[in-house]
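Regression test case RT-17, inverse folding.

Input:
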């Protein structure tokens, strides 16, 4: 068992667990996704039927709107959450204070008076 724990030592000061790390200038996934969502193309708007220059984000949203209009409830929920935010679940809580120990002074006075 001790042999398995030998590699669980903290790094020395100034030493890193990933010395090469992420290359400088490397883009993260959200930056790349935003880049491609902003790419435009000429396409037919499924709602108006007109040929327009639309971003990929527009096309995706319009596809959801089309599905919603066809009765897809999950598409409706996704659109509502995107437009207005997800509903926050509220939990109603009532706190009733109860003593940890019964009041022993009342019991003592009753027993002494008897």
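Golden output:
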């Amino acid at each position: 068992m001790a042999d398995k724990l030998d590699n669980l030592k903290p790094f020395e000061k100034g030493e890193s667990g990933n010395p090469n790390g992420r290359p400088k200038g490397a883009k993260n996934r959200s930056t790349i996704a935003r880049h491609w969502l902003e790419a435009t193309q000429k396409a037919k708007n499924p709602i108006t039927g007109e040929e327009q220059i639309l971003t990929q984000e527009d096309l995706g949203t319009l596809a959801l709107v089309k599905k919603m209009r066809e009765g897809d409830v999950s598409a409706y929920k996704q659109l509502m959450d995107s437009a207005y935010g997800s509903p926050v679940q509220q939990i109603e809580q009532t706190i009733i204070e109860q003593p940890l120990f019964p009041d022993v002074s009342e019991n003592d006075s009753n027993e002494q008076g008897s």
